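Hi team,

As requested, here is the filled-out complex form for the zinc ion run. I kept the field names the same as last time so the parser does not choke. Let me know if anything looks off before we queue the next batch.

— J.
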Amino acid sequence: MVKKLSLLIALSLSGLRIWAQENPISYTVSLNNAVHHEAQISLVIPKPPQDSFVVKMARSSPGRYATHEFGKNIYDVLAYQADGKQLKIKQIEGDAFQISGHQGSVKITYTLFGNRVDGTYAGIDHRHAHLNIPASFMFVPALQERPIDLKILLPNKQWQVYTQLPVDSGVYKAKNLQYFMDSPIEISSATVKSFDVLNKEGSAQKIKIVYHGTAADSTLQDLTLKTKKIVKEAEAVFGELPQFDFKEYTFLIDVLPSNASDGMEHRNSTVIPQQAANLESSISDVLSTISHEFFHAWNVERIRPKTLEPFNFEKANMSDELWFAEGFTQYYGELLQARAGVTSIDDFLNNQGYFLNSVLNSPGANRYSPLEISRRAVFVDAGVAIDPNNNHNIYSSYYLYGNIIALALDLSLQSQFNLSLDDYMKLLWQKHGKTEIPYTIADLQQTLASLTSDDFAKTFFTNYIYGIQKPNYRALMAKAGYDLNRTKPFAAYVGNLRLNPENGKLKLLSPALFNTPIYDAGIEAGDYILSADSTNFSKTEDFEAYLKTKKPGEQITLTYERDGKVKNTLLTLTYNPTLGLNAYEKLGIELTPEIIAFREKWLKSKSTE
Ligand SMILES: [Zn+2]
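And here is what came back:
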C-alpha cells in the first residue's frame, strides 16, 4: 500500500512531543539552482552572543569516523543584522567566520555546492537534494543547545521532504544541534511504503521505506516484505524494538546510477544510497544494507560507545570499540538476512569464509588488536589523502575483524554455555541500550562475565580484543559441521601479487605484504619480475605456470629489475594460505544429530511471525 506523505506526517504529529522553543536558530533552504548543484541557505540567530561569535562548517559527521573538510563547498558567506545592515565578517579559518559589531539578531546567508549522493556529503541536482546535515549546514559552536527550526522552499510541486525530523506547520524541528546533525534529509518525489510493528504491550511503531529511483511497484512491495522479515529478526535478537522518538523509523533509500553506494545509520532513520539503474538490479545490495543499518538502531545508536559521546563536529572522535559497534553489526547484518530467508545459508557461510580468510591472512590483523585497528578508522573511513599509506600491512577492516570475533563468540557461547550471541546482545541492550548509558570495553567484558564466567570473559578479551591471538576457528566451525581449510593446500606461494605485463616484462603493481616470501626477499611494487631460475616471464600466466611446477619449501632464484639494473634474490616458497569454508556434507562427512541441532539453533529464524 502506498501512503501519501501528508497522511504520514499527520500521523506522526500525534506523537510529537513539543520541544522547548526558546530562541531557535531558524534555517531556510532554497533550491532554485539545483540543476547546477547549488542550494541557498540562510540561518537566523536570535540573541547571538553579544560581542562576537563564530559560525562554521563541521569537519565530521555522525556514523563516519574520519574528518572531512565540508567547508570547501560553501561560499558567498554574508551576515546581516535585523535592520538589514550588512555586518563585517572575519574569516578566521578556512571554514570558520567570526561575526562582530551586531545588534539584535543576525542572519547568515551562504551558498552550498553538493554533487555526491552518499551517506556523508550533499548531492543536489535536477532530480533531488540529498542533504547530510554536517555537509550542508553552518552552525554556531557556542549555541549548540539551541533548538533548530528548518524550512525548505520546494522548487516544484512534485518534490517533498523526507526526514526523521518531526514537522509542525511546514517547519522541521530539532531539539539541538546534535539531533539536527543526525537527521539527514531527502528532497525529491519519492514513493513511501510502510508497515507497523507492534511492541509487547500492543502499541504500534511505524517503519517507513522512502524510495527515490526507478522501481516497479511489485519490486517495492517485495523490498517492503523482505525488510519486514529482517526487522522482525532484528527485533527477536533484542526482544523488542527501540522506542523510536516519534514512533517512526525511516529508511531513506536512493537508487541512481550516479550515486555512491553507502549506508549511514542515524537514530530514527538510515540513508541508503545505491549506485544502480533501478531497484530490480540492486535489491539484494539494498537489503544487505538495510539489514546492517537497522541493527545499528540498537548497536551504536543506543548501545553506544562512550568514545562517540558527545559527537565532536570539529574533529573525528577516536573510538576503541568499532570492532564491536561496526563488526558485530556486520555479523548480524549477514546473519539476520539468512535467518529471514532473504539470503541462503550457503551465502551466509560463503561470506563468513571470505571474511575469515581476509582477516586471518591480513598482515594488519596479525600485528594489531581489534582495539588498535578501530583507532585507525579516523584515517580510513572515507578519509582521503593524496600520499600513499601502508594500510595493506598495518590495517585490517574493523568490520570484518569484528565480524569474525562475533562469529567466534557466538559459536563459543553456544558450544560452551548453551547460550548464543543473541543472549549477550539482549543483556547489553538491557544494561546500556534501553538506559542509553554509553559503554566502555570494560563494560562489554563485565557483561560477558555476568553471562558466562569471569574466567571466560577475561580470557576472551585479553586474547582477542586487547591482544592479537585468534580463536581456533577450525574447531569452532567444526561444531556446526563446517570445515575451515586451505583452498589450495599443495600450491606454492610467493605472496599476493598483482602483476602487469609491460614491454615483455612483468611489473609488480601491488605493494608487498608483510610476512610473505616476496616481502622477505626485498621486492616491492614498481619492480619488474623477469625470470626465476631459467624461466622467463612476459605474461602473468607464465609466472603462474612456473609456480605450479614448484612446491612449498623449495628455494628459487628470482631475477628482477629495479632502476634499470638487473638483480637476483633467493626466496623460499611457502604454502598458499588462502582459506575457505566447506559444509561437511559437501565433503562427504556425515552430519551427526549434534551438528544438525547446533546448526539449527544458530541459523534458524527467531522471529515469531
Ligand atoms: Zn555500520
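Two things worth flagging: The longest helix spans residues 217-238. The two ends are 20 Å apart (CA to CA).

Thanks,
J.
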